[in-house]
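Sharing a chain and its predicted structure for anyone who wants a worked example. Both blocks are below, sequence first, tokens second.
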Amino acid sequence: SIAMMVKNEEKYLQECLEALQPLREAVDSELIIVDTGSEDRTVEIARQFTDKVYFHQWNNDFAAMRNKTIEYATGEWLLILDGDEILADARGAIRFLKSPDSKKYKTGIFKFRNTTRLDDESAYFTCYLPRLFKNDNFSYKGSIHEQPQFKNPIVEIPGEIIHYGYLSTDKELMEYKFRRNVGILKEELAKNSENSYYWFQLSQSYGMYQDYENALEAALKAYQTACRNNEDLADRMYIYDQLALCYLWNKRYEDVEATCREALKIKKGYLDIHYYLAEAQRAMSKDREAIKNYREYLRLYLDDSYQMDVTMSNKTAGKHEYVCLYLCMLHHKLREDEAALRYAKKISSEKVFCQAIPQIGEIYADSGKFTRLRGFYQEKIEDSEDTVVDIFFTALENTLLKVKDDDRRARIIELFTAARDSYALLYRVKQLVLQDKNEMPKELYEAVKDIDYLKLPVFFADILYWFIKNKHELREITGRFRLPLIQSHFAYLAQTHKNFSEEAVAYLQASPQAADLDTAKVNKELAKTILLADKCNKEQYRYALERYLAEGTYYLARVYNPLLLEKGRVGDFMCDEDA
């Protein structure tokens, strides 16, 4: 008997019931659905799959409603599911139910994958829950977070159940569950404040609602209540798990560490405990200890040897890729580069890998392994999405800014003069700067004029630096720039080139006072950047000030002119609003 209670489950119910079809076709079964007040298409969908649809008014008691579904069941076994749970693979359940071995067991547990974000493959947690029961006076207890009163022996049923009931992106669902659950829990705690399990559940509800202060307060009460009543915490490791997480949310890292150490003395083998402990130690710069606990987390995860505790979830099961990232970062920080690269190579998620790119690039560049740097680019970056390519070159530019040796900088730049798209143009121009060449090949000159600088990182300003250094007219490049883009590019050059002010003054001295708007715009901003940088002598500063006043006066007299709009020169304004 597949027994379900539902309310407003139209979003996933069709998928849920379709996933049960292989099981229903292979095993003699019935589908029982009790609706508790749906106002959407839930009942309509349910009736497409079964005629055993019943109606009972919701009474704020989960166990009572769950038991109502069981009253209709006539099967030897009970499979309990919700309308937002999908049996991803029914073969394990089919094999078990058709096997003579099924007679040896009273309860079957499934691995649950609880998805919290649809747009993030790492946003999930796992748990093992009993959902298959011998129909032998079986029942649930507890008005909220109802507990199955199952019997031994227990068997794990192969096949994952996907659960969509914790989607943090569904704000309406989260708000509804928070109000409902917190209301019921507070009612129960008013009757019996010594129920540590309800304090734990209240903490979880506050945590899911991102009310971390109240979550911590409730978690502490769960722990204190359990200790006061001499409850066996070895059977309630979920209390330690929640308390450590709440301390972590509230950045109380020493308390995280103390809680996790106490938990590990009682029982080992919990993913979350090692993850929270490592996170706290990383935050406190206890790098060696953090590495040890991240590694233990990975060992447990990869060996699938962590505790199969039906009383709690593994909230950090989706964090294994991030653990590899953190190990890469920590080993790089400790100058253990081969270990850092080893963990970086274990990352398969593009989203997480992007965060490792700066570490990898810096390792290769710092150690002079230029061939490996180029190979890494060709193997992992070149054919990736534009965002990944941008991340790589942003990291490379940050590394180049730290390189003091001109020969090393030249070798790195040369590696990427044949990179893809506009990056090849950038590094060819940077190469000209390093080689102190004041002429640019015509095809390169025309190509850099056509670059869409607005869509590229600010370090493409290095192309402008060649024009300034060699006194070529900037308006060839900046004619289509709005002021904010010119300002950001000049500010970048002032920050990253120690001779910028001197070169910029020389450029202005070689450039006649503006006779057109484009020249005035760029000259006034260049003069202003020199003044703001304040890195030149008094004579140069005075000259920059005079040019700023002259160019600025010319610019202002002409920019706020209706004729500009008639000519379509919207780009001369700061923004569309000014226009």
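Comments welcome. Confidence is low (pLDDT under 50) at residues 575-579.
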